[in-house]
Write a structure and sequence with these properties.
The protein is of the alpha+beta class. It has three helices and three strands, in the order H-H-E-E-H-E. It has a three-stranded antiparallel sheet with strand order 2-1-3.
């Protein structure tokens, strides 16, 4: 299937697709509630920087569970750099 025009025809008078370097694109539709559930259940181990999700992937080691901290994936987080 030919992709739709990526440049407004009014700008150039013709439809020209811009090369993106991508072989394909997958669009996933996920309800906002599910996105929030996945984001809010995350914790990080400050020693290993391993990220756990308390519902779907909790740590097996009780010592790791004790030291978990809230996870933040904000830009500028020094633990992720």
């Amino acid at each position: 299937m030919t992709p739709p025009c990526l440049v407004d025809e009014a700008e150039t008078g013709q439809c020209v697709a811009i090369a993106s370097g991508l072989d394909g694109v997958i669009i996933l539709e996920t309800p906002q509630e599910e996105c929030l559930r996945r984001a809010t259940g995350r914790k990080v181990d400050p020693n290993t920087h391993q990220v756990y999700h308390m519902q779907t992937n909790p740590p097996e080691d009780p010592k790791v569970l004790e030291r978990l901290q809230d996870y933040s994936d904000q830009a500028g987080n020094p633990e992720r750099m």
